[in-house]
């Protein structure tokens, strides 16, 4: 236990460490004491995650003499909204928190996005620590500083870039994760393999995950770190992280968000690699290998919607600025490139 600890340092507008390993949460007290002496902590979590983990987190803070409160909200994407955000801000004010204090986001992507935004807003900025509890949040949303809530008009429409000051990925927490939620994260892991790391892809395709969890998460975080370091504010290279995501967003939207993000990304990667090869945008057909990797990791490979339905959903997406859209094409497993195309070209590709 605790033997395989990995550390990835991110150098964005803030410098911070992502620490990955079994029971890394035990480090929380000593880290807060050294990084933010005599600060108080508000833990933010949803009711589902709280039932598994909040007692342990509170006990660690109590044992270290760190005063703490907890704000717990209902589990689910519906909570990623302005109303819950402002309830959290009012709670912080009521409990007399200040900008010297620390918000700890304990949960998946919803919790991380909501808490990250609150940390940027409350008194114009307080400290932020991310403790992602899902594989998806560990490899993706807890690193890179994107925060947001959803508006009536669409997902992630109100947010800011706000990097955390520490990320603790505790692989012990993955043990209590439902199978389908773990699989969801594997879709993003496979994505990292396709866009940047053939060796990672092979490990995952062969299903050798459980014994390599720390290493796999560290590699995903490193890939994201390298891309974010180059393009923190998402004006260029960061788009590579969106492989499979254009189609995925359309699938999620068509399903009224019943289909999970990971499942949608899985199918999006299959469709995009097939379409890119058929239309001569890439010389290599990666779809077969991607399908093998997805099936090995209990992810779907086929789409319940017609391509025309996906196209309609895509052109109403916020990422479709000025009638053009960036698509990410696998040149080979481990290497990909972005191509900016018009919506007419997209329509042709999906025909
Ligand atoms: Mg994603």
Which ions and ligands are bound to the chains? magnesium ion
How far apart are the termini?
52 Å
Strand content of the residues, in percent? 15-25%
Provide the succession of SSEs.
EEHEHEHEHEHEEEHHHHHHHEEH
Strand order of the largest sheet: 1-2-9-6-5-3-4
What's the SSE blueprint?
Elements: E1 6-11, E2 15-21, H1 28-35, E3 41-46, H2 47-63, E4 68-73, H3 82-94, E5 102-107, H4 109-121, E6 127-132, H5 135-141, E7 149-151, E8 154-158, E9 166-170, H6 179-196, H7 198-205, H8 213-230, H9 245-254, H10 261-278, H11 287-296, H12 307-315, E10 324-332, E11 335-342, H13 343-350
Parallel strand pairs: 2-9, 3-4, 3-5, 5-6, 6-9
Antiparallel strand pairs: 1-2, 7-8, 10-11
Helix pairs in contact: 3-4, 5-6, 5-8, 6-7, 6-8, 6-10, 7-11, 9-10, 9-12, 10-11, 12-13
The structure holds magnesium ion (MG).
Residues 140, 188, 245, 261, 265 line the site of magnesium ion.
Can you tell me about this structure?
The chain is an alpha/beta fold and 351 residues long. 45% of the residues lie in helices and 19% in strands. It is built from 13 helices and eleven strands. The protein has helices at 28-35, 47-63, 82-94, 109-121, 135-141, 179-196, 198-205, 213-230, 245-254, 261-278, 287-296, 307-315, 343-350, and strands at 6-11, 15-21, 41-46, 68-73, 102-107, 127-132, 149-151, 154-158, 166-170, 324-332, 335-342. The chain has a seven-stranded mixed β-sheet with strand order 1-2-9-6-5-3-4, with helices on both faces. A two-stranded antiparallel ribbon has the order 7-8. Strand 10 (324-332) and strand 11 (335-342) form a beta hairpin. It is globular. Bound molecules: magnesium ion. The site of magnesium ion (MG) has 5 residues, from helix 10.
